Amino acid sequence: MNLARRQFLQAGSAVAFLGAIGALSFGVRHAFAADAATFEVTHTEEEWKKILTPNQFQVLRKEATERPFSSPLNDEHRKGVFHCAGCDLDLYASDTKFESGTGWPSFYQPLQNAIGTKTDSTFGMARTAVHCRRCGGHLGHVFNDGPKPTGLRYCMNGLAMKFVPA
Questions:
Q1: What percent of the chain shows pLDDT beyond 90?
Q2: pTM exceeding 0.85
Q3: Active-site annotation holder among 84, 87, 132, 155
Q4: Most CB within 10 Å of its CB: which of 30, 54, 75, 108?
Q5: What is the pLDDT of residues 107-116, one digit of tens each?
C-alpha cells in the first residue's frame, strides 16, 4: 500500500512539473510574439545593441526588469515628458507620475497613442506587459491598483525611458 501511494504521488508530481514547464514555455513563446509585430521603428539586434546601453538592451529588447529603487527617474519630479529610450517617442507626462513605493517610476496614464499592451504569462501568472507602440520596446507592466482618476499603475523600468524637462 505504501509503494502504491508513493508511486501515485511521484506520478502526480511529475505531471505537475511537466505542466509548469509547459506553462513557462508558453509564456516565453508568447513573450516573443511581439517581436514578430511590425513597428514603425525597427532595427536588427546588433543595431539595437549599438543604440542602447547593455542594460537598456536587456530591458527594452529582452523584456528584463531592472532592480527596484535603482533608477534615477524614481526621484525625477520636474515638469516634462518621459520618452522611450529606444525611439524617443513621448510616453508619459510628468503630471501623471506618482510615488507608488514599488521602486519603479509609476504613472497613472500614458500619453495618447504612446503604448501597446500584451498578455505576459511568464512566471506562471498573467500580467499585462506595456511596450512602446512605435518601436516595441518593453517598458514594464500595468496593474489595477493605481490612484484616481484611472485606477491604473503603469510600473515602468527607468532604463526604458529618458526624461526631457519642459
A1: 73
A2: no
A3: 155
A4: 108
A5: 999 999 999 9
